Amino acid sequence: PTISIINGPNLNLLGQREPLIYGAETLADVEALCRATADTLGFDVECFQSNREGAIVEELHRVRPFARGVVINAAGYTHTSVAIRDALVMIDAPVMEVHISNVHAREEFRHHSFISDIAAGVIVGCGVQGYEFAINRIAALRPATAQ
Ligand code: DQA
Fold first, then answer.
1. Is 12 annotated as contributing to ligand binding?
2. pLDDT per residue as tens digits for the range 42-100
3. Of the candidates 7, 8, 69, 90, which lies 20 to 30 Å from 16 by C-alpha distance?
4. To which CATH superfamily is domain 2-141 assigned?
5. Integer Cα distance of 36 and 42 in angstroms
6. Ligand 1 pocket test, candidate residues 72, 78, 106, 116, most atoms within 8 A of CB
7. Residue to substitute in 12, 73, 113, 114 for testing ligand 1 pocket (most ligand atoms within 8 angstroms of CB)
8. What is the pLDDT of residues 113-125, one digit of tens each?
9. Cα(145) to centroid of ligand 1, in Å?
10. Would you state the pLDDT for residue 147?
11. Residue with CA at minimum distance from ligand 1 atom 12
12. Of 102, 42, 101, 38, which is closest to residue 70 (Cα–Cα)?
């Protein structure tokens, strides 16, 4: 069973990008953390990052038939993208929304998400540990051993 991990724009520069807000870990570190967390729960992960909205939509279409859960940090597209929201709505498996920073303690434009109301859960401001929490939550909702 596979959990899809989707990271949006500018997250390829994690570690270099505003480290006081987003921390020192790189995207490779985040993906390794996801793999290790999923492994302990009996899941595989497929990790995807893109700076392009359409590529994220297409990845959601690709994983839709088989993903047992989706962890998405849509980054800036969280606050703008009806298209990513629409692609997520088509996914039957639980979708967990993650933000590394506490978006509610930042600019007003980050307070609204097009994803939160259709997500199974939302984790903000827990740093990259949020990805770990999200994978654990998917495993609790849909254990790897279940059909
Ligand atoms: C982010 C928060 C977004 O507002 C921002 O545009 C990002 C990263 C986070 O992980 O905290 O790119 O999703």
1. no
2. 999 999 999 999 999 999 999 999 999 999 999 999 999 999 999 999 999 999 999 99
3. 69
4. Dehydroquinase, class II (3.40.50.9100)
5. 10
6. 78
7. 73
8. 999 999 999 999 9
9. 33
10. 60
11. 75
12. 38
* Contact yes or no for 61/87 (Cβ under 8 A): yes
Judge if the beta carbon of residue 78 lies within 6 A of ligand 1. Answer: yes
- Residue 48, beta-bridge partner list: 6
What's the whole-model pTM score? Answer: 0.97
Burial of 131 (0-12, 13-18, 19+ CB in 10 A): buried
Burial of 108 by CB count in 10 Å (0-12 exposed, 13-18 middle, 19+ buried)? exposed
Task: Write down the ipTM of this complex.
Answer: 0.99
Mean pLDDT of 97-118: 98
Question: Is 26's C-beta closer than 6 angstroms to any atom of ligand 1?
Answer: no
Query: Of ligand 1's atoms, which has the minimum distance to the CA of residue 98?
Result: 10
The answer to whether 51 is a known ligand-binding residue is: no
Taking the C-alpha atoms of residue 99 and residue 82, their distance in angstroms, rounded to an integer, is 18
Domains in the chain: boundaries: 2-141
